[in-house]
Each structure stands twice: as C-alpha cells, then as structure tokens.
Amino acid sequence: MSELRALAMTSKAWPFEEARKLVKRFEKNPPTKGCVLFETGYGPSGLPHIGTFGEVARTTMIRRAFEAISDIPTKLICFSDDLDGMRKVPGNVPNPEAMQQHLQRPLSVVPDPFGTHDSFGDHNNAMLRRFLDTFGFQYDFYSASEFYKSGQFDEILLRAVGKYDEIMEVMLASLREERRATYSIFLPISPKSGRVLYVPMKSVNAAEGTITFDDEGEETTLSVTGGQVKLQWKPDFGARWAALNVDFEMYGKDHSTNTHIYDKICRILGAPAPAHFVYEMFLDENGNKISKSSGNGISIDEWLTYASAESLSYFMYLKPKSAKRLHFDVIPKAVDEYHQHLRAFEGQDLKARLNNPVWHIHQGQPPVSDMVVPFAMLLNLASASNTETKEQMWGFINKYAPEATSETHPGLDAAAGFAVRYFHDFVKPEKVYRAATDVERAALADLAEQLKAWDGEVDAENLQSLVFAVGKDHGFDPLRAWFAAIYEVLLGAKQGPRFGGFVALYGVAETVGLIEKALNGEFVT
Q1: So what's the pLDDT on residue 296?
Q2: Is 0.85 surpassed by the pTM of this model?
Q3: CATH number of residue 476's parent domain
Q4: Maximal CA-CA distance, the chain
Q5: Residue 109, CA distances (Å) to 48, 92, 97, 143, 222 in order
Q6: Domain assignment of residue 344, yes or no
Q7: What residues of the chain score a pLDDT lower than 50?
Q8: Are the beta carbons of 112 and 123 closer than 8 angstroms?
Q9: pLDDT at 1
Q10: Is residue 452 part of a domain?
C-alpha cells in the first residue's frame, strides 16, 4: 500500500471519511457495472445557484478521495429533471407574465424567456453545464426528458407498474389523509394540454404497462413508456437510483426526511439503495434558505464577479454539515483563507496535506499562491484611495512588493480587479465616517507626526509597533478602541486591516495625508 493511500485511510478530512465508507461497501462485492457511480440531481425550475454547484463540487471531492484509496473506476452523472412541470414562474426571468400560460408544462417544452435556447429547461441545463465546465468538473450530463423519451427509463417504469401497489403503500404512509385520496406515483403528460397532470389513477394495468385516468373529463389510457408519463418526484428519486444503479448521492437536509422513502422504492424496484451524504442548507443574509426560483443568495456568476473560482470551491469544502450564511460579505474571508491554506501546503508533510482543503480542491496538485497582499488589505487600499481601476491598485502594490507584476502574479492581478469591483459595489455604499473625539484627534495627530519623521525601512511589523505605541501613549485601554477609531475615522468602516501592513502598502506619506484629511473634516458630511 502506498504512503498516500495508507495516510488517506486515517485522514480526518471529511471527503476521505465518506470515501472510506464506499470502500467498505465494495470490499467484498465490487460493482458489477465496473465503476462506482456518483450522481447529483438538478431541478431546472430556475437558474442554477451556488447550492447546485456545491453538490457537484462536494461530490467530486469525495469521488477524488475515493480514487486515492481504491482502484475501482468512478463516474459522475449530473441528472436534470427537465421533464418536471413548471409549477410557478421564477421571479428572476424576463417577461414572466408571458410564461404564465405554460404553467405545469414540462420545463423541456416551456419557451425560453431569454430567447437563446429551444426551451426554458434547455436554457437552464446549458447554464448548469457552463458553470460546471468553468470549474473543470468531469461528468456525464443526463436530461430526464431525453432519458424518459428515449426509452432508457422504460424498464424501470414497467417494473413500477408491476410494483404499483407496493410503492403506493410506501408513499401513502407518508402523506396526509386528504392527499392520499388523489395521489398517484405516476404523472401523465396530457395529450390535450401538454401539461403534467396530478390526477388519481382509475386503473393501472401491469400486463399492458398502461395507466388510465381522466383528462379534462375524458377517460384516457397511456403507456407508461416513451416519455408519456413521468414519476412523482419522490418515487422518481428512488427509481432513478434503480435505473442507473447509483452508488452515491448527496443532497440537502430538506431531503433527509425522505431518505427512507427513496431507499425503499429503490429496493422495491430491484436495486440496492446508494450511500448518502446529507449536507446543511445555505442561507441568505436574512437566514432564509436560498432558492433557485426566488433568486436570493449569491449566484455563481456573482461570486465570480468578485473572487476566484477556487475561493468558491474552498467555501464549499468548509463544514458541509453546518448551515452557512451565503452572502457577499463571506467572499473576502474565503479568498484570504484559501490562500493561507495554499501557502501552508508547501511546507506540510503528506499527512497534513491530505487534511488541507486545497488538496481536495485541486485533486492533490494545488498551485502556489502569488497573493503577496491579502484580499482584505486590497479592499482597504481601494477604500482609502477610492481606486477606480486595478492599474491604480498596482501603483500601491509595487511600493510594497516591487518585484511583483501582473505577469508574474496573475492571481494577485485578478484579485486587484476583484477588490476594486467589490469595493465599489459593497464597501463604498456602506462607508460611514465619523469625527474623531478630542482624545482620538490628539492620538491621530501624534501618529501623523511620527510617520512624517519615519526614516526606517517601510516594514509592516515595525510600523504596526509604532501604531501600537501611539495608542498606548494616549491611554487607549483596551487598544482595540484605538484601532476602532482608526478604522471609523480614516476608513469609514467598523473593521479594518493590521494598520502597519496598510501603511506599508498605501505608503507612509499617503497615510499622513489620509490622517490630515480626516482631521480637517473632509470625510464627514
């Protein structure tokens, strides 16, 4: 056994913990299909959101961890339920009024409100694939509409007809009494209206593979094969596992109460239930669950407007079983922590590297960080200088790191651009300066004078010591009150960077000018 595999078998990183469960699952009986099949599901009722990305990112982390400790090949399927009826019009699409007439029709036939694809389902599927391709995921894409209509699902559907009573028994036990009277596991697609019908069955014929129901008052019989009928979403979950012989799927906590239903239906249809991983939900700034249809939270494109793809992957790695606020203010911290782990990776032994998030983000081959200036510091630099472009940012960066260029430090270059955007969209509108108190004014004036007299090396630590000393000399206790004054009076913010590092980056003379402007009242309206 290789050193990597031996250490991975004891690693406490959560992808390895889940991967070891799969290894144990196939210890005695390797999968007959020749691979371990991972699956993620997507409901294209709205534009893909970060939660969708998170499922694929985290599943891929477990998949790669499994490959590190097992010789069994793997495969990942991303399955889109685009045959589902459109239950409501999303609030974040153009001309939503025009879509009202298509309610309950399969997403794969609802016209695309963006006018770029054959259907709304096709549009959202393309968005999902573009997002996933941006991150370099390796996956096979499956469309439910194609899967049903091509006959690939026929065998399981016919099996479900034969096991109708048994599956109904599982479902009815989970439903309220009034829902039981009209419930059926089958949803016919009306030959008249094209809508997905939620109607009770008048009869189910296992021998013929047909169902009979009323469609606008007329008794209608359809074969369950060929895409004329789809399964309700809970039976569909278990049936899809059985049809594809899925070995692993993760999903959000909102599905967790249904796990036993999915598993029972999968087994009734003749396949073992897969392994599961339940993650906690993402919440918006108000603590509400993010949703595709409402468009709250952050989209993938929005995150990538302000930070790198790798920082988003890092955010997804963190504590998947803990609920996390997913708002724009989490981005700077995620960027800086990601680069902290990158820098640590270089000096770690193999055991520590396997526990480092960047091993799982980059499949064991992370790049070297070129962020010689933290993202939080770049934000404060943009704030202090009201910078409009990343080229202006480089004028300051080169004072601090003269050897750095946009060519030699492409990550830093991109981060400078992200910081300017983030500052103008989120920091600048929230800046609130206040006037200094008499004690603070005296201390800031003293700091300015000592900086004017500074003739030592422009070193962050030495400058930080100077700032500390001034705060102590002027009786600030605790010293955090001194730093709070600096941030609120000079930067218009409640929090800020290590000020010595900021002075080194922004410039000693420039910081003196900043203090003088603040003391002259130029920042307070």
Answers
A1: 59
A2: yes
A3: 1.10.10.350
A4: 95
A5: 18, 19, 17, 13, 20
A6: no
A7: 293
A8: yes
A9: 61
A10: yes
